[in-house]
Amino acid sequence: MTGKAAPAAKKPAPAAAKKKAAPAPKEKAAPKEEPSTKEEPAPKEEPAPKEEPAPAPAAEEPPAPEHPPGTEQPPVPPGEPAAAPTEAGAEATPGAEAAPPAEPPTPDKPKEEPPSSPLSLAVEEVSENSFTLTWKAPEHTGRASLDGYVVEICKDGSSEWKAVNQEPFLSTRCTVPNLSSGDKIHVRVTARSAHGASAPASLEQPVLIREILQLPKIRMPRHLRETYVRRVGDAVNIMIPFQGKPQPEVTWTKEDQPLDTSRVNIRTTARDTIFYIRQAQRGDSGHYQLTVRIDGAEDKATLDIQVVEPPGPPQNLKLVDVWGFNVALEWNPPADNGNAEIKGYRVQKSDKKSGKWFTVLERCTRTSCTISDLIIGNTYSFRVFSENSCGLSDSAALAAGVAHIEKTKTTYQPEKIPQRDMMEPPKFTQPLTDRTTTRGYSTHLFCSVRGFPQPKIIWLKNQMEIREDPKYIAMIEQGVCSLEIRKPSPFDGGVYTCKAVNPLGEASVDCRLDVKGRV
């Protein structure tokens, strides 16, 4: 056993162990001691423990040396302490006892993530010295609330980014001003929160700063394309949008004359113009022209304003006639129509007993009327209002006289109707027609006749009068003559005649009847 231990002690230790373990040189003297002549059992000798990888070795330190497989550590000399490791986490040197396993490190708390990048970054508008950006809020903002956004720009060909806003703002729209025409500007936008800044959202292509020309165009609202009507004293507040780039020149005139600034206030922005009158008067009515001009290009629109008020009363109301239960009135249109068309007149009556006014006609479009169904014995007064789109006139025209309805005696005289001579000789208005019938099937002959006195009807067959024969049935009703021949036979064929006779004369018609045998 001693022969085996000596060669193991003479084997040199690795370089790393020489640097770190101070007692390494002393281990070389171990073979000089006299080993025990008595053979000791193997269990008394402590075998080297299997080495485990260090839980967290230092980054700058090399790993601890490992013994070759199958070798044993030399025994520690008596009275000499085992060498302790020089650093925490280092491997135990040969001959030292195995160190207890290190405790696992506690996991660090997860770091708060910054917000994600803004979405849908786009250019909304470009002018000759500025441009406007829009974007959407990021999809994730983290646990902390969003502080705002920072917009940065960089000229094409340069690497210097410049912040447009020093402090974050929450708006998702930003206008970058004070740029030079022809520049190409790169843009990026970051979202900021208490946990940091997001990855920047940028445009794929730089923004070219140049003037975008747009012809002037007035967007006249639909309700202003017709006459705009307001009452006296109302406010007139009209906004008319327009478009055009660069900023167009806006001009207002009235009847091709400059506006009276004491009556009309005009305020114009980059996108619309506002026409305002605090209290409208009838003199503010008229045609207003709006002109939007850019250099030689222009667009025009006309605004018609009509300021109205109630009309005046009708003039010269007269009581023209009174007869029976009726009264006729006439009047003239009002001198002042309130700056609007007269739509009609309202006529009212009042009886002397009650003194109350009742409307008898509304929206009468003529300047005269007839009032009927008045009560006998009453005395009536009449008045008339004029009406336009603003309403009824403030006052009414009152008829000067009154109408007293009296009971009149009338005598009925029947109208004499001249007598007319109604005498007329017979005359056939519808003749007989030839007929063909089948043997055994009854048939009818028809004709019509008129005359006064009513003529006598005689039927003949082959110039022979048909008397009381049950085979024939003759009838006349309302001037229509008919002859029924019941179940005729070939013998019944021939010429039939209808003769009409009265005191003033006679007339006749005839026809042929053919009777065929059955097939």
Automatic annotation (TrEMBL):
Keywords: Cell adhesion, Immunoglobulin domain, Muscle protein, Repeat, Thick filament. Residues 1-125 are annotated as: Disordered. It comes from the Eukaryota. GO terms for cellular component: myosin filament. Residues 54-80 have a biased composition (Pro residues). Residues 25-53 have a biased composition (Basic and acidic residues). Residues 114-212, 313-408 form the Fibronectin type-III domain. GO terms for biological process: cell adhesion. Residues 216-304, 426-510 form the Ig-like domain. It holds the Pfam family fn3. InterPro entries: FN3_dom, FN3_sf, Ig-like_dom, Ig-like_dom_sf, Ig-like_fold, Ig_I-set, Ig_sub, Ig_sub2. Residues 1-16, 81-100 have a biased composition (Low complexity). Coiled coil: none annotated. Binds to myosin; probably involved in interaction with thick myofilaments in the A-band. Belongs to the immunoglobulin superfamily. MyBP family. This is Myosin-binding protein H. It comes from Formicarius rufipectus.
